[in-house]
User: Fold this.
Amino acid sequence: MEKIRWLGCGILIGIANVIPGVSGGTMAVILNIYDPLILAFHRGRLRSSLPFLLLVGGGTALGVLLFSRSITYLIRHYEMATQYAFMGLVAGSIPFLWRKARHKELKKKNWVPFCLALLLMLGLLVINKTAAPDSGAFAPDSMAYPVLAGWLFLSALASTIAMILPGISGSFVLLMLGGYFVTMEAIATVDLSVLLPVAAGILAGGAIGIKVVGLMIIEHPQAMY
Assistant:
């Protein structure tokens, strides 16, 4: 039963990762597997945590594959309703993060990372307003493949690091950088010329993000949340 739960959690995290504005990290917090998932890569725990990681990872990949075509269709044909659904999911996740942060008495110094993170998200909002992904700034069809592959690698790297952090949507970062629709369509059509650089970026971003976030959970959990 526990293994089925891990697989189901992975599927929900995968679906969350596909939705712009919804954080896969936050979904993991809601499902109460975020800390075990990040810490599984630290201090010799990898071997003992392998079944857990394989089931959650496999479920995540399955969730992305199952939902990639659906979410692209919904955004393109029912954008307003879909975006409001996203906002509801984001707003509903706030109490879970709040309880994590207030598990112990709140230290005043931890308002600093909160304010910095808030300013970061407001900055992303401004950038997204002034350089929207559909403004024509990113045109995959007009790019030479080496340039496109490099751009997709860097976009996937940045969005994966964002995805690991609770409260930040990796798919929103990918959308802001202009690589969201081309990646979703490549997943739906199994276009390896796009998927390979994206996969490389995901692996690099995951290695960096998990290491940093894992250290934060161990050393400064309240500041991180």
Remarks:
- Residues 50-77 form the longest helix (28 residues).
- DSSP finds eleven helices and no strands in the chain.
- The mean pLDDT is 78.
- Residues 115 and 121 are 10 Å apart (CA to CA).
